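Appendix B, Record 12. Input sequence as logged:
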Amino acid sequence: MARKEKKKRRYSKSSGSDVKNEMRRYKKGKAKSGRGGKGGKVKSRKQAIEIGISKARKKGKKVTKKKS
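Logged structural output:
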């Protein structure tokens, strides 16, 4: 039988921690959207995850490219 190939990681482990931190903020009700957090409260899990990913992207961590 052929050996399974290892899949390449799309996201770094450290970018996952950024998402984890943002999810904690969302669950506590502290997560805000918009530039500098001047928007309203984050109301969905998906939005919180995307904010965490964008923060990781700004730090230069390994994250997939933004869809245009």
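DSSP finds two helices and no strands in the chain.
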